[in-house]
């Protein structure tokens, strides 16, 4: 590996390490649902917040991609997005510390603003991040980078899990100090994560006449992209269907809280087992990606995501300690998605249309936006058993469709 490649890998691994440490502080499958449950007893309200968190960047992605097409260099947008995101963490920490105990509804209301800012800036940074990776890392080498990032991220996640478990340990910090502390750590982690990107030597993007079209004409290109590229259009369908698995990820901890009546110490315990699954799976996903390709990683993730809700129902009678298996498998799935979906999209995207594809992919992930909110409604009205079963059916459908996807 050349010194230039080593530097590029080091930059992205640094960012991945501190970003993951940060995101452990507000883990969407354990910590954040537990915090919302402390503030308000409503799966629907949490589902709405989760929809905003996942959906806002996707809704605006096609606009972001059109805007960035006019710029040769996209690094500055990555830095802007990252630091705005950091300060949204700080805002959540301040409101949690001062108002969570006396005015929980005020905190929930503020979270809608902070989460919106967090998600919008994350989407802005995400497109430039993927575009820069596409420019710096050649096709066929990206799986190795993503696996390396995941390995570093796993170590950071383990460290983050230990911090969270320590903060949530009985007798350490009472509510809301415990959550305010981890949110503030998240703020610091994002600030540090962004340092590496100042050292990126980003090559310029080619700006041609097609890049300088109006936003209206930019939208008109979308049907043509879907019509000409069957692999991409089927990928969009598959990713939307696979969103059913993501829909219920934050509700596994809610299911445990309601089914087992667990305390906050289990939040840290489940988070650690999720991280153990992520760490162990990195070697496996890296090998599969290098030997069989990112598409196979995606298919395995989808199949496992379809089996997980059924396993959660089957294992729950054994009690909360055995339920750690569910979070161990969730760790596998989270890692696999990062090693599979993004590299596969970059592989099937034409180089001269990469930014367009990233924007279209984001904005047409409609179900990612709707499903977390609908998940809360489904669980409220249908219960966990029926909702989990529905998820398995849709995930199986996605698995079959991807298997039939054309090779070219």
Structural features, described:
The chain is mostly helical and 408 residues long. It has a single domain, classed as Growth Hormone, Chain: A (Up-down Bundle). Helices cover 79% and strands 0% of the residues. Helix 4 runs antiparallel to helix 7 and helix 12 runs antiparallel to helix 13. The longest helix has 38 residues. The radius of gyration is 20 Å and the shape is globular. 52% of the residues are buried. The mean pLDDT is 79.
Record the SSE blueprint.
Layout: H1 3-24, H2 31-39, H3 43-68, H4 75-99, H5 104-136, H6 142-167, H7 177-193, H8 215-228, H9 230-248, H10 251-260, H11 265-292, H12 294-315, H13 324-348, H14 354-363, H15 366-403
Helix pairs in contact: 1-6, 1-7, 3-5, 3-14, 3-15, 4-5, 4-7, 5-14, 6-11, 6-13, 9-12, 9-15, 11-12, 11-13, 12-13, 12-15
Distance between the termini: 30 Å
Query: Structural class from helices and strands?
Result: mainly alpha
Count of domain modules? 1
Rg to the nearest angstrom?
20 Å
CATH superfamily descriptor: MFS general substrate transporter like domains
CATH class: Mainly Alpha
Shape: globular
CATH topology, which one?
A: Growth Hormone, Chain: A
CATH-level-2 architecture: Up-down Bundle
Major beta-sheet overview: none
Q: Give me the strand/helix succession.
A: HHHHHHHHHHHHHHH
User: What value does the average pLDDT take?
Assistant: 79
Helicity level, as a percent range?
A: over 70%
How many strand segments? 0
């Amino acid at each position: 590996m050349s010194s230039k490649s080593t530097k590029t890998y080091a930059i992205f691994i640094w960012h991945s390490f501190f970003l993951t440490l940060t995101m452990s502080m507000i883990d969407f499958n354990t910590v954040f649902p537990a915090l919302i449950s402390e503030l308000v007893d409503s799966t629907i309200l949490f589902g709405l917040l989760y929809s905003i968190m996942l959906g806002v960047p996707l809704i605006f992605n096609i606009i972001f991609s059109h805007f960035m097409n006019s710029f040769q260099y996209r690094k500055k947008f990555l830095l802007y997005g990252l630091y705005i995101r950091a300060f949204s963490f700080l805002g959540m920490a301040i409101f949690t510390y001062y108002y969570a105990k006396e005015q929980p509804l005020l905190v929930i209301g503020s979270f809608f603003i902070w989460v919106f800012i967090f998600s919008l800036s994350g989407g802005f940074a995400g497109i430039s991040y993927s575009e820069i990776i596409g420019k710096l890392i050649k096709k066929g080498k990206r799986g190795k980078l993503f696996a390396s990032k995941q390995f570093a991220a796993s170590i950071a996640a383990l460290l983050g899990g230990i911090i969270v478990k320590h903060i949530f340990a009985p007798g350490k910090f009472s509510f809301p100090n415990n959550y305010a502390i981890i949110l503030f750590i998240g703020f610091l982690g994002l600030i540090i994560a962004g340092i590496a990107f100042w050292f990126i030597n980003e090559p310029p993007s080619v700006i041609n006449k097609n890049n300088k079209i109006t936003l209206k004409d930019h939208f008109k290109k979308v049907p043509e992209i879907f019509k000409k590229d069957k692999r991409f259009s089927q990928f969009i369908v598959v990713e939307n269907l696979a969103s059913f698995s993501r829909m219920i990820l934050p509700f596994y901890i809610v299911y445990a809280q309601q089914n087992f009546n667990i305390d906050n110490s289990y939040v840290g315990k489940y988070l650690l087992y999720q991280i153990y699954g992520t760490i162990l799976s990195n070697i496996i996903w890296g090998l599969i990606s290098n030997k069989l390709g990112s598409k196979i990683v995606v298919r395995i993730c989808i199949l496992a995501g379809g089996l997980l809700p059924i396993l959660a129902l089957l294992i729950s009678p054994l009690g909360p300690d055995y339920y750690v298996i569910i979070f161990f498998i969730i760790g596998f799935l989270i890692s696999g998605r990062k090693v599979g979906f993004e590299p596969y999209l970059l592989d099937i995207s034409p180089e001269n249309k990469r930014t367009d594809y990233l924007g279209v992919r984001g904005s047409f992930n409609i179900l990612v936006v709707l499903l977390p909110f609908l998940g809360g409604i489904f669980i409220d009205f249908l219960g966990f058993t029926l909702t989990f079963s529905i998820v398995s059916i849709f995930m199986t459908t996605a698995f079959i469709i991807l298997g039939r996807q054309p090779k070219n």
